[in-house]
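Same chain as my last thread, 335 residues:
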Amino acid sequence: MNDLTLFEGNDIKVTFHEGSTKKILVSFVGRNRNESFDNTFAVNFGLKNGFSVLAVRTANNHWYQTQEMYEIVKILDDFKSSEVFLYGGSMGGYGAILLSSMVTWPLKVIALSPQFGISQEDIPFDKRWINNYDHTKAIFKNCKLNAAHDYFIVYDNHHRTDTCHVKRLMVSNAKAVVCPIKIPFAGHVVGDFSAAFLGNIVKSIFNSSLSLSEVNKKRKELRIESSVYMMNLVKSLFDKGKNQKALHFLEKYGDIIDDQDFISLFRSRIYMRMKKNMLALYFARVNLNLESEERLRHLISVYKHLNWTYETELFSNILIKQTDASKRTLDFLNR
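reply #2:
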């Protein structure tokens, strides 16, 4: 992939990838396990759709809390005459919205499951990346939408935490133009529902041809084929205490879900709630994956519930070894 480095600092690197038109896509990388400037987001997607791409890369998962963000603003000033889109997901969505608050001339922002803020003081409801938050200085804190721009926010409106973030973003500036695009039971990574479906949504935004009625129509057609949709639906029903409905969907759409770990785990959880202890134990042990911390924790919970001391200790020791006696594991075992 040919690219030209326009800026490289300690926290952020920006590379330019020339496309076939003057349209500019500024892509913001999301959180990555492999923290380095090697990671990019949607570069090939942008090029395939005719865009020249400014790829914003991060040295680590700092949630764009760096003064180097102003270097991107300077770079963008050279593209004022172009049609510009900012695009990112999760941490990258936060970065896209954050940058938009620093730019005064009109552009479009596409954010997938973005965060409103990173400080635990402001978002006590979100503990997912608390280790990243704890090691990040919240220079900019909360994102605020800018009335100069058009925003397209794609998210799962049944995902409680993501919905809380989106609601806070929506009220951050009542004058901002916002188009919420809801994909129920898609999960945090909305593209997992269907990458092609998400790609078509984004392309329709590029082409100013977005139709929410068409999006909803296509989503309803695809959901019956989506394992992600079915799994998140089961999780939601379970969380709401609708055990029979959750069990019904597990049994009816097991072939679509096609994840025996998930099916066994949730069948066991449901049967525990129904006080069908032997069925709960059976499914807790079926296809048991000893590499799965979630499966192990649940099996230990079942043994504890049954007061089976030997088995509880046996699998507790396996969990301790697997997780290197992490604080989370020890807290769980000491409950």
